[in-house]
Design brief:
Elements (H helix, E strand, L loop, with lengths): L9 H6 L8 E5 L13 E6 L4 E7 L2 H9 L12
Antiparallel strand pairs: 1-2, 2-3
Length: 81
């Protein structure tokens, strides 16, 4: 990735990006792999610019995946704000 040498905050802004550019993710409430036990509830997490923070829960894997994918790709207006 190219970092603009003229921008004094470029390295800082790069570090604020979430790992693998994943802004929303879900995890099983009771641990284990995310693909296992699709009927169990999931914890929803959202990147806040520094770390993932709890954003709610989903009743099952399909609801969690729907929540993760509902963010419009390329829309960063809600991020880092």
């Amino acid at each position: 990735m190219y970092i603009d040498a003229a921008d004094p905050l470029a390295a800082y802004n790069k570090r604020r990006r979430p790992p693998l550019d994943i802004h929303r993710r879900h995890r099983p409430l009771h641990g284990g792999g995310g693909h296992l036990r699709p009927d169990e509830p999931r914890a929803l997490e959202q990147w806040n610019g520094f770390s993932y923070e709890p954003a709610g829960t989903a009743a099952n894997l399909s609801e969690a995946q729907r929540w993760v994918n509902e963010q419009t790709s390329g829309d960063t207006s809600a991020e880092y704000g």
